[in-house]
Design goal:
- The protein is of the alpha+beta class.
- It has two domains: 102 residues, Topoisomerase I, Chain A, domain 4, CATH 1.10.132.20; 68 residues, Gyrase A, domain 2 (2-Layer Sandwich), CATH 3.30.1360.
- The protein has four helices and six strands.
- Helix 1 runs antiparallel to helix 3 and helix 1 packs parallel to helix 4.
């Protein structure tokens, strides 16, 4: 009974960490990655569609992203979506493709991005704590329903706390790596 709760709790905590890593991919570091445009959606014939699904998105060098739509008629739509996404650059449309030129980041911009990353870390930690609370609530319900003893309940809650501590440590480690990547000139 409790082992199922542990497995579910662990799986949900892992999902929180994966979500944090996806969020981190959208942050700009010293080198431009296509992850910056991953969250941009374009109006593709009435359906909001990911930019990466309506064209070819590549990082041509450390400061440039090139977007080649599969249909030329999408160029203005993509251009508008990028402007509305407010990613810090204006799109350059040459009639065949769109280029995004990212200037080198200033130290202030780097510090601002580190703050954004810290916010993402806090959200992930809150998610982990919520998963811990759900797991503990399930354990307490088992104890209340007399399906497990008080000792088993305490032991199970300690194990859930240990899982929580491990996942918070993983989040902190992921942040240290990302912070170093952001601040690296």
């Amino acid at each position: 009974m409790t082992s199922e709760i542990f497995e579910q709790t662990n799986a949900n905590m892992e999902k929180s960490i994966e979500a944090l890593k996806r969020d981190f991919a959208t942050l700009r570091t010293g080198k431009v990655t296509t992850g910056i445009v991953d969250n941009i959606k374009v109006d593709y014939y009435g359906t909001m569609t990911a930019l990466t699904q309506v064209g070819n998105v590549i990082a041509t060098d450390a400061t440039t992203i090139s977007i080649t739509p599969w249909e030329k008629t999408l160029l203005p739509v993509i251009e508008k979506a990028i402007q509305e996404a407010n990613i810090g650059v204006n799109p350059n449309n040459d009639g065949d493709f769109i280029k995004l030129f990212f200037p080198p980041m200033t130290s202030e911009q780097r510090q601002e991005i580190v703050k954004q990353a810290k916010g993402m870390v806090e959200n992930a930690k809150v998610a982990i704590r919520n998963v811990r609370k759900d797991g503990n609530d399930k354990i307490k319900k088992l104890e209340k329903d007399k399906e497990i003893s008080e000792d088993e309940s305490k032991k199970a809650q300690e194990q859930i706390q240990k899982l929580t501590d491990e996942h918070v440590a993983k989040i902190d480690e992921a942040f240290k790596v990302k912070e170093a990547d952001i601040l690296k000139v």
